[in-house]
Amino acid sequence: MPKPTDIRLLDVATRTEKFAYRAPIKFGGRVVTDVTLFHMTVTVETRDGRRATGYGSMPVGAVWAWPSQRVSAADAEIAMIAHSERMAQVARKYAGVGHPLEITHELSHDYAPQAAEVIKALGLAEPMPKLAQMVSASPLESAIHDAYGRALGMNSYNVLSAEFVNRDLGSYLTPEFAGEYLDRYTLREPKARMPLYHLVGALDPLTAGDVTERLTDGYPQTLPEWIAYNGLTHLKIKLNGDDLAWDVERVVRVESTAAPAQAARGCQAWHYSLDFNEKCANVQYLLDFIARVKERSPQAFERVQYIEQPTHRDLKSHPENKMHAVAKIKPVVIDESLVDFESLLLCREQGYSGVALKACKGQTEALLMGAAAQKYGMFLCVQDLSCPGWSFLHSASISARLPTIAAIEGNSRQYCPSANDGWRERYPTMFKVTDGMLGTAALNGVGLGFDWVETKR
Description:
Elements: E1 7-27, E2 30-46, E3 51-59, H1 62-65, H2 73-93, H3 100-107, H4 111-122, H5 130-152, E4 194-200, H6 223-230, E5 234-238, H7 244-264, E6 271-275, H8 283-296, H9 298-303, E7 304-308, H10 324-327, E8 332-334, H11 341-349, E9 354-357, H12 363-375, E10 379-382, H13 389-401, E11 408-409, H14 412-415, H15 423-426, H16 428-431, E12 437-438
Parallel strand pairs: 4-5, 4-11, 5-6, 6-7, 7-8, 8-9, 9-10
Antiparallel strand pairs: 1-2, 2-3, 4-12
Helix pairs in contact: 2-4, 2-5, 3-5, 6-7, 7-8
């Protein structure tokens, strides 16, 4: 039966905003120096006449979502923004009524057709990847979920039960989820505090001797400076994946640099995650890397919490890259590969033991994949896309509401802190970190849990 809380979409508005990075970041062999944010607002109305406007924002992230030898990063970004605009137009014409899970699921059927129209209009040399489609549509998804919660005067994570949702998880996943709803896999209150994962980029100076140009903007630059500044206990290390000696040496140097900095502040326990951005040619590279790190620095090896997406994102084309042997040593999670439930099942077959969720893939997708990963007993983490402001809080809210996620990655404060102006003052526990912890208790408001803040330019 129709529910009085079901919503219809009344209006959709879009805009973009661009920020320069204070320092470049390298991943997947590419260097990024700025970020374009795509903002979206959606106004909704419930069947019983309650109205509200929700917000969504996400970095376009073309370099990560659409790495290509045939389409430039600039053209990929233009195409992704055009796709976002097209999905906004689709949403304006959408006549359905229901829960955000149902609405966004139906809208997702238009991702590929609209992407094809963008490619045709721009005359690009290859189709838009599904991951890029998801990223460009993610502000729309989050705005719809946010607006729904605001219309009901409730947090969006507390309106996921059978009281509000019209179809169970079996309708979106497989019959084994029949009779289950997302309230089973999410928390009614956010975790009060969570550790922050700091990014150690491949270009980032570890020590003062690595600094080629000293920045004078008041923020740290070397790893010991960041450790002291934020009280860090979790470090994500970017690696090349195609230079074994460099990758091993990088981890060893991070350990030798971090250890005295941590000792100076009395910290005895800290953790690493390792991100190869799918650049490892094969699994043997990864096994050799692990063996050498363990030999060179047993302490560094013990601190590794998980390994992220070591080999190519196209799992079907590389069935030889089975992760069973690695997963016996450390959790191995997929990130770029995870674009739907089918890819999650395939990664399990190929030996992956964990899943990295991202807000940039869509709120609905994050919730569904988070539920599936929990049911299958997989390691769970949430990864960043250098998300500032709204998009960072959105990513953090997912982390704080899924029970098995232990930490939050957030690196916009490192690379584009100007995009957090205004947000730091409104949410100091999330943007002013001194003890390595984020005060996620602040993410307990209506909608996705926080309010929009205008960036001070």
